[in-house]
Amino acid sequence: MYVDRSTVARDSFKDKVAVVTGAGQGIGRETARILAHLGARVVVAEIRDTGADVANAINFEGGTALFVQTDVSDSGQFDILKQKAYEAFDRVDILVSNAAHYVLKPVLDHSLEEWDHVMAVNLRGAFLGIRAFLPGMLSRGYGVIVTFQSTEGMPFLASYLATKVGLRSLAASLAMEIGTDKGVSVFCYGPGMVDTEGGGAAFRQLAPMYGQGMQEFISGGGVLISPELSATGLVGAILRAEDFHGEDVDFSSGLSRLGLDSSGEPVVAASIPGVDAEAMRGQAPPGSGGALDLNRELERILDASAKEYDRLPLFVRPVARRMFQQGTGKKVNEWLVTAQEMSARLEAGKADPDEIREYVGLLKRLDGFMAKQESDARNWFKKPEDLQMALDSLAERREVIARLMEELGK
User: Is there a domain that residue 197 lies in?
Assistant: First the structure.
């Protein structure tokens, strides 16, 4: 297992109980296996008989698993799932709402039954799981709840992707309701472009619908990764769930918490979302002008960041953009507009003290986000020269922000 290449303890989930829905194949199956490998007792919730095979495999490998055949869209079956989980293990500490259903066709070609079934499995199923297991987590002061997101706005996937946007919003809303002092963490996971049984079937069907060959379609979405690699990233995020409460998490961020790169090797070799180290090579250092010159330098940085996000793979791009927004308070393009408006005010001498104070507050958030990127970069890059290039780029950007805040404070 990839997780054995990390330094994480084999008993990291000892005494924890996890429910993984849709665990009969793909990411759900591998997540259940890895959680059990690290000491968790796992409830395999799956509508098909394949769930029994997964539970049997876990038990054969020395773990502890229980299969409960479950249609997650059915509230009565969820009640049975809860009852059997509590009878076997007394509680549930981790809920991974992985079960999903999709229909590939134009919006107008959906029957009402098809549309409702996608909504019922994907959205209602997640809600039923939260309703069943969150109260116990709150009463014990510990819990992790995970929903799943995907990319956005692809033709012929409207119903499925609508639920994924809903699941992201559900996780964010629930995290705000719970707060940060209850011991329960909620996040929405972006698994990447994964070669699962269901995903592979969807890709083969979608490619000709887009007028593309299979390889052309896959290359447009990024790197196709294995279910085990994506599940390993998920387990890494669950281990550090308090770091991600209320946030979107991509698979590489979860892997980095295990000290693994995006291919599952120790020490990560990827790129920092929003920082194209190669593109920054040879760029001039920040100028020495006043607030207006520095703010225009910030505009250049933000414009470069927006273009860097646009170059990210399809299945990574929306998650990376939202992580920027969560960390800085604005979308990257909104940040650029805000900076341009401030430049206009500074040039006209019309920036009043209240506007400047608010702007400095935003700059502090932007700097904090880049500081976190600096910290994460030490896990994301394998080659020392690539790491140093990225760190130099971030240091230059942070220097501009620091000097701009200083000038605005005069």
Answer: yes
